[in-house]
Amino acid sequence: MNLEDVKKFFEQNKDNEEVKAYLAGLKQISVQEVQQMLTENEELKKFFDSEKDKHFSKGLETWKRNNLQKLIDEEIKKRFPEADPKDVKLKELEAKIQQMEQEKLREALKNKALTLATEKKLPVQLIDFLIGQDEESTLQNLATFEEVWTQNLQALVEEKLKTNGVNPKDSNVKTQTFTREQLLAMTPEEIQKNWDLIKDQLKNI
Residue 46 to residues 10, 12, 37, 39, 84: CA-CA distances in angstroms? Predict the structure, then answer.
């Protein structure tokens, strides 16, 4: 017989005098006797454990509902403290100042690159692509571009002369008459310096 059978028996015989007397006697049971019964009766122990779990779960849910969210909010504030509005404004101001400084630096680098490119007779349409993070990188980009541009320009002159039956050869003539021999003898820097005149002459060759 298990606990359910006992409960069922008492329910069915609740009006029986002997049962009444027995139940009345149970009301006098002591705490020690209850503890002993729980130790000796496995079914009774399971019943009490089940009831205890129910009450614990209910109490835990009530505690969660009343306290858990508050604890979570406090922990979030502790780990991620809310920024002071003054700090937010200060950071925004610092970001704007930094952006202005970067724009000012870029403008200065662009002006310097434009000046140098103009002096070297390099095409200024590509200046924006040559601006680096600082003056050093910008000058390096400009020097690399000048080297590539000059090499291609010299190759263009030689190819144009070859097309018109002139064999490129070295020459030390450095007058301003710009004969074919002189064009071939020019250094890349001289070609850059006199590009406008050379370009006009190439059209007429």
Answer: 19, 23, 12, 11, 56
**Residue 141 CB neighbour total at 10 angstroms:** 18
Residue ranges in the chain assigned as alpha helix (H): 3-12, 17-26, 31-40, 42-63, 69-79, 85-119, 127-130, 135-163, 180-185, 188-193, 195-204
Give CA–CA dist 119/128, Å, rounded: 17
- Model confidence over 104-134: pLDDT tens digits? 999 999 999 999 988 888 888 888 888 988 9
Q: Please check whether residue 130 is in contact with residue 113, taking contact to mean a CB–CB distance below 8 angstroms.
A: yes
Asked whether 141 and 130 are in contact (CB, 8 A), the reply is: yes
- The tokens for 43 are 């079914």
Query: Any idea what DSSP says for residue 205?
Result: -
Residue 124: closest CA among 149, 103, 100, 102: 149
pTM beyond 0.85: the answer is no
Positive or negative CA dihedral for 108, 110, 111, 113? positive
- Tell me how far apart the alpha carbons of residues 127 and 116 are, in angstroms, rounded to a whole number: 10
Q: How confident is the model at residue 197 (pLDDT cuts 50, 70, 90)?
A: confident
Can you tell me which residue has the tokens 């662009």?
110
